[in-house]
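Consider this one:
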Amino acid sequence: MKALKIVAVTAVLLSGCSYVSTYGVHAKLLGAEQQIIECQYEAALDTLQRFTVVGSSKEKQRAFEYMGVIYQEKMDLEAFNHTVDRYLFSDMGRGKDRAMVITEWNETRRILKEQRVMAIGQAECATNFANA
């Protein structure tokens, strides 16, 4: 019984420590999501591109998804297709259907638009086509 308690306490301590080391990373990813909602695309892309390289598998997947949303909203089809291709060739996307991935990203885009309406009162961000 005493050994079981020691194992349980050790497991709790170790899992708590691993959570702390990734806390800042998750906060940055959530910050990028908020930047998308607030139409701060370039700042969000900077963070998301880093996550596609150094994040965990789940973080990389979310980063690719958010990048796809941004490129769709900026109507940058070339960058969007490149992002989808990068995702499909990554470990997380390997074996997935391209159309299904795009459908999932479109759903994320819809959700973010709803959040944007609640946050800033508009669904679309103004796009500067001269710089696109």
User: Anything to note?
Assistant: Residues 32 and 44 are 5 Å apart (CA to CA). The chain has a mean pLDDT of 84. The radius of gyration is 18 Å.
